[in-house]
Amino acid sequence: LGPVSDKTLLDIGGGVGAIPFAMIADGLAAVTNVDASPAYHEVVQEEAERRKQTSKFRFHSGDFVSMAKDILASNIVTLDRVICCYEDMPALVSTSIEKADNIYAVVYPRSVWWNRIFFSLANLSLRVLGKDFRTYLHDTDSVQALIRSRGFQNRHHTDLLIWQVSVYERVA
Fold first, then answer.
1. What string of H, E and C letters represents the secondary structure of the chain?
2. pTM for this entry
3. What digits encode the pLDDT tens for the residues 19-66?
4. 118-131, pLDDT tens digit by residue?
5. Which of 10, 148, 133 has the alpha carbon at shortest distance from 68?
6. Cα–Cα distance between 107 and 82 in angstroms, integer?
């Protein structure tokens, strides 16, 4: 990512805030945290209070794509394990990348055969349990092509067993 001093972060689906807290320690100026779960916001707010960093955070609860027009752009946008929770990947990626001034970082599942089996079984289990939530395994090439089409170039990519991590930078 490079230096983050005095930069801003939009963390979409930020969960417990691991990314922003790590970046604040490196000098990040401000965080906009968007999560569909109010419970995660409570955890992050409590931790920000404990660390005396509440002034660095703005919180938005709900579906990012629906509320994006009300959210300011940031130097850095992160989606850590969010793309797989959203059925309409093109809408999520297109809308979120519009908010990235310089850096766009994503962690999402690799579209490999073992993940297809795993995701199918996970969704079957959710269905049997009567849950509405589903997971989605989006095609890696489609995600990458969409990001590149918006003027970003891949600067880092790592494949793990299940996940892939990519950091993109806007090209001039």
1. CCCCCCCEEEEECCCCCHHHHHHHHCCCCEEEEEECCHHHHHHHHHHHHHCCCHHHEEEEECCHHHHHHHCCCEEEEEEECCHHHCCCHHHHHHHHHCCEEEEEEEEEECCCHHHHHHHHHHHHHHHHCCCCCCCCCCCHHHHHHHHHHCCEEEEEEEECCCEEEEEEEECC
2. 0.95
3. 999 999 999 999 999 999 989 989 999 999 999 999 999 999 999 999
4. 999 999 999 999 99
5. 10
6. 8
